[in-house]
Amino acid sequence: MHVSLRQLRVVLAVAEHGSFSEAAQAIGLSQSAVSQGVKALEESLGTQLVERSTRRVRLTQAGEALMVPLKDALDRLESVLVEARSAGAIQQKVVQVACTPHLSGRLLSQCLADAARQYPDLQIQLREQPQPSAVESVRRGIVEFALAVGDERLTDLIQTRVLRDQFMLICRHDHPFARRKMVQLTQLRFERLILLATALGGRSGLNSLLRGHGVAVEPAQEVTLAATAMEMVAEGLGVAILPASRLPLPKQLRLKAVELDPSPMRDIVLTQRKGSSLSEAAQKLHELIIRRASGSGADNPERERPLTVLIPFPEGGPVDRYGRTFGEVLSRHLRQVVVIKNTVGLGGAQGVHELTRSEADGYTIGIAGSGTTVFTEGGEMQGFVDIFKDLTFLGGLVRVPSVLVAGKHLPAANLRELLAHARLHPRGLRIAAAGHGSSRTLAERFQELARISLQIELYDGLAPAVKDLMRGKVDLVFGEPVGVLPVIQNQKGCAIVVAGSERCPLLPTVPCANELGLQGLATDHGYGLMAPASLPAHVLTHLSGAITDTLRSAEIADRFEQLGVKPDLQSGPFYAEFIRSEQKNGEPSTLLEGVEGFAFFLLV
């Protein structure tokens, strides 16, 4: 039996996208090559993996059984290959970087020049590739990161936005549009459009916006170079829509750039693998590109010094997503590069411990959750960190509901069925606690309220806990909405209750604790922002102002809402008092509140 890695990657892409065409676009192959790869694998295995009778490809039972172990095996193999490549690159101080051709112009040239001046021993090997190929090079560990267009959210990769690129209308100097300051999109209906090719990235959002205003994007001239589009406009073949990053226009062509309303935008992002740290050399270049794109330049080292945000949980988890979203917007308010660092261990306390050992100069802040700030008074955390003596409170970050999810292997679609099943297992269902604090306390509180036995198993972060839930190694988990939503949507688990006083917008059909008579399970879980103790007053004022502006911005509100959380607008002193009150309310004597009411609820 001969099975190639390419065949395995192809069938996994088909399973993830549910379509041969979308899988082909994602991995940079033709649709026929994808179809042939799947067929060859089926012949080698002697079984059908996908059903082709519908427009959307569906997995057979054999295909379903193959996917989870296949993904795990490929992930492990990719990690081994990436580590091997990274080890060699670190020894040689060589950084492999991919970039789509139309982004490798001025920005990357400036960054390469900056790198040559600041890090003369650093060798950079640049690969110009079409958008799908550049992204796939990151997935396979061929390059450490790629500069590409953020057309879509790639859940298996980390995307760091470096700039927002505005599309402009390019026309001849004698075109009627050249006399205007702004052109409405609807006024392009009768124009011959010249656009950059879809494979270069950025077209999905542009196409959607144009079609929404009645502008047909086919037929249109498609080119791979902005310079070609400009030449075609100069020859009177139409008008072009090009990114503003391709300006200024060549003077000899006598063209005019005019703003569009509404203004199409695209994100330019740095894309890297999850769960695989950049080499030291690659990290230097990564930060340098962010600085150059943010306009901080390369002439003032102190101005270039980044602000580091310590996140005490793994990459890709809910807290990591809150922190990266916040850091991205904070960077623009501070006009300073923000770098994310994940320090994992002890249920979030290790990252906070590292923060207390950082220099109090305003260049390092961190995120702390309830597990460290509220539940540090006893047990394993005692003496590890004194949050009121070792930290400066900068304020809140997010308020987060927790959702109790049961694995699909349990015969439970609601609370009553779950409790009935639990009572048939007196030795206790296994519940994962993502951390040593709030998640464990929720599990203990639920156990007392429901009067059932639970075996609590501790995890460093929600991602590994959810993975074990899907594998059937644990039965239950309390998790944050954005962390458990894929499990629920893919029918790998069932949401039982939202541990709070109101329902979650991402899970509108799931009842909250108060609705089910579980008032004692209602929590006010969240994360705050901290800095080392003894932070200078002027630095504290500066940081607090930028954090407040960031959390009050419409962008943060919208992006947090998509993650199922809300900004916590409490200032530093108020947040410190809030934590003191939560510590008092979290004492063991209060954990049984609501038991009597819940018992009555069950009887009726």
CATH class of the domain at 93-273: Alpha Beta
Overall pLDDT, averaged?
A: 80
Shape: globular
Known CATH architecture of the domain at 93-273: 3-Layer(aba) Sandwich
Any idea of the CATH topology of the domain at 93-273?
D-Maltodextrin-Binding Protein, domain 2
Tell me the Rg in angstroms: 27 Å
SS elements, strand count: 23
The profile of the biggest β sheet is: 10 strands, mixed
Low-confidence stretches: 88-92, 296-303, 374-382, 587-604
Structural class: alpha/beta
Question: What's the helix count?
Answer: 22
Give the oligomer, counting copies of the same chain as homo and different chains as hetero.
single chain
- Sheet-strand content, in percent, reads 15-25%
Helix coverage percent of residues? 40-55%
From the structure above, extract its key features.
alpha/beta; globular; D-Maltodextrin-Binding Protein, domain 2; 22 helices; 604 residues; 10-stranded mixed beta sheet
Write the layout of secondary structure elements.
Elements: H1 5-17, H2 20-27, H3 31-45, E1 50-51, E2 58-59, H4 61-92, E3 94-99, H5 106-118, E4 123-128, H6 131-139, E5 145-149, E6 157-172, E7 182-184, E8 193-196, H7 203-212, E9 221-223, H8 226-234, E10 239-243, E11 255-261, E12 265-273, H9 280-293, H10 301-304, E13 307-311, H11 318-334, E14 338-342, H12 349-356, E15 364-369, H13 370-373, H14 387-390, E16 391-399, E17 402-407, H15 415-423, E18 429-434, H16 438-450, E19 454-459, H17 462-471, E20 476-479, H18 481-489, E21 493-499, E22 526-532, H19 537-551, H20 554-562, E23 566-567, H21 572-585, H22 595-603
Parallel strand pairs: 3-4, 3-5, 7-11, 8-9, 8-10, 13-14, 13-15, 18-19, 18-20
Antiparallel strand pairs: 1-2, 5-12, 6-10, 6-11, 6-12, 15-22, 16-22, 16-23, 17-20, 17-21
